[in-house]
Design goal:
Elements (H helix, E strand, L loop, with lengths): L13 H18 L8 H12 L14 H10 L6 H14 L3 E6 L4 E6 L1 H8 L11 H4 L3 H8 L3 E4 L12 E8 L6 E9 L6 H20 L11 E3 L7 E4 L2 E4 L2 H11 L7 H8 L7 H15 L4 E2 L4 E2 L4 E2 H10 L3 H7 L11 H21 L2 H9 L7 H10 L3 H17 L20
Parallel strand pairs: 6-11
Antiparallel strand pairs: 1-2, 1-5, 3-4, 4-5, 6-7, 7-8, 9-10
Organism: Streptomyces tropicalis
Pfam families: GAF
Keywords: DNA-binding
Length: 436
């Protein structure tokens, strides 16, 4: 095959390939081995799906509904290019009895539009707005796999991991933020065997590129859109977007801007020093030098002194997660959470903010007991050893893989709690041995 991302090469018999893929899928689900004609991209996706605990008889879960879905869609960046998607793909989808679908970076469907009969059929497998079609939820599928591997991909028939999706063919391409390069989501076309053609993948890829160009050309609609924005989740060095430019901050400057953004009234030198340094021997001169370098980096007028403060409001991805948690939009908060805030920072105040944000979100996820949201957290780097989340996941989705992982964590916890007894005549700190 000339293009490994295309499901069928020109001239291939769809019926014959469908039968061969069905046999290969049965072999994999029974024995865990992959045979031809399964493409490498599909085989890798099947293995990821199995490791995530997805079963072939599973189905997608609808986790955003009504007001929660509407609020999330309204503020999602891809909302601005939905008219473009409808113009380029909408008529094609309606005329061909296909569906136009758009998902976010977590594989959550935001829009599903197209032929009414096809929409009704797709609804039987929960291919509907608000449903989660990430690989970790329903296995191999075009929108979920496209955002997972960050490549345009086509999925045909029994290449889908869950059997309910196997009558369908879909092609999807990721859409990126033109400023940061991050995946915003994917645009997808879903229908019958007629889409199992290289042209459908090329078409959807061209639509995704057009959307990225459109996003890059959008002009600000008001002063608020020029407000500085801080990205601090899942990164040790913050990225500050200000006045049309992006500034990468050092770790110390990242901590300072995070703290000042949360204190618009400003902080004195002593307050900022206590928030930043565990070592009280750090001199005021050291802090003043850091602030002087930061002022030169940010440009004139953004950082003031006496007290130290930012002269304009600075938004952040962390504040967005907090706002969504406050309003009860748990799924939307989880979608915006890209990882711990400045994870390597040892600044006392930053560490408190980081713990408070992570604990608030994980507590909300545990209380909500949504297996897909719990699985996303558990399989993320920051949740791999979060035993409370794994326990909640095991209670809601007790697959063999989840139970095995939980048992391993329970064993590690029990081993870590065992301490050697202190020698005679000496006492352990605090009068007793303690677990970490």
């Amino acid at each position: 095959m000339t293009d490994p991302w295309v499901a069928l090469e020109p001239g291939a018999d769809p019926s014959e390939r469908r039968r061969a893929l069905r046999r290969a899928h049965e072999t994999f689900t029974e024995a865990g081995t992959v045979h031809r004609p399964v493409r490498a991209v599909v085989a890798d996706s099947w293995r990821r799906s199995a490791r995530a605990g997805v079963g072939p008889d599973g189905t997608a879960t609808v986790e955003l509904e009504d007001g929660d879905l509407g609020a999330y869609r309204a503020e999602h960046p891809l909302a601005t290019v939905m008219p473009l998607f409808r113009e380029l793909l909408g008529t094609f989808a309606a005329d061909g009895e296909h569906l136009l679908a758009v998902c976010d970076a977590h594989g959550r469907l935001l829009w599903v539009e197209g032929h009414p009969t096809t929409r009704k059929l797709a609804g039987q497998m929960n291919f509907v707005p608000g449903a989660r079609w990430a690989e970790s939820a329903v296995g191999t599928n075009a929108p979920g796999t496209a955002v997972m591997v960050d490549r345009p991909v086509q999925v045909f028939a029994a290449e889908h991991f869950v059997r309910r999706a196997q009558p369908w063919t879909c092609a999807a391409a990721p859409v990126h933020d033109p400023r940061t390069g991050l995946v915003l989501g994917a645009v997808d076309i879903t229908g019958g065997d007629g889409l199992a053609h290289p042209h459908s993948l090329g078409f959807v890829q061209a639509v995704a590129r057009a959307a990225e160009s459109h996003l890059a050309l959008l002009t600000p609609r008001g002063p608020a859109e020029d407000a500085p924005e801080l990205a601090v989740l899942g990164r040790d060095e913050a990225r500050l977007s200000v006045e049309g430019r992006t500034v990468r901050l050092s770790r110390r400057h990242s901590e300072i801007v995070v703290l000042l953004s949360r204190h618009p009234e400003g902080l004195t030198g002593d307050e900022l020093s206590c928030a930043l340094y565990e070592d009280e021997s750090v001199t005021p001169v050291t802090l003043r030098a850091e602030l002087a370098r930061l002022r030169r980096l940010l440009g004139p007028g953004l950082l003031a002194s006496r007290p130290y403060r930012l002269t304009v409001p600075v938004g952040s991805d962390a504040a967005l997660v907090e706002r969504r948690l406050e309003t009860g939009a748990i799924a939307a908060a989880a979608a915006a959470y890209a990882g711990p805030l400045l994870p390597s920072s040892q600044a006392p105040a930053v560490a408190r903010i980081r713990r408070r944000l992570a604990d608030g979100l994980r507590g909300a996820l545990i209380a909500r007991r949504d297996p897909d949201l719990l699985a996303d957290w558990a399989h993320a780097p920051w949740g791999e050893e979060d035993i409370d989340v794994w326990r909640a996941l095991a209670a809601t989705r007790p697959t063999a893989a989840v139970r095995t992982r939980l048992a391993a964590l329970e064993t590690e916890l029990a081993a870590a709690s065992v301490r050697p007894l202190p020698r005679a005549g000496r006492r352990a700190e605090g009068g007793r041995a303690s677990a970490p």
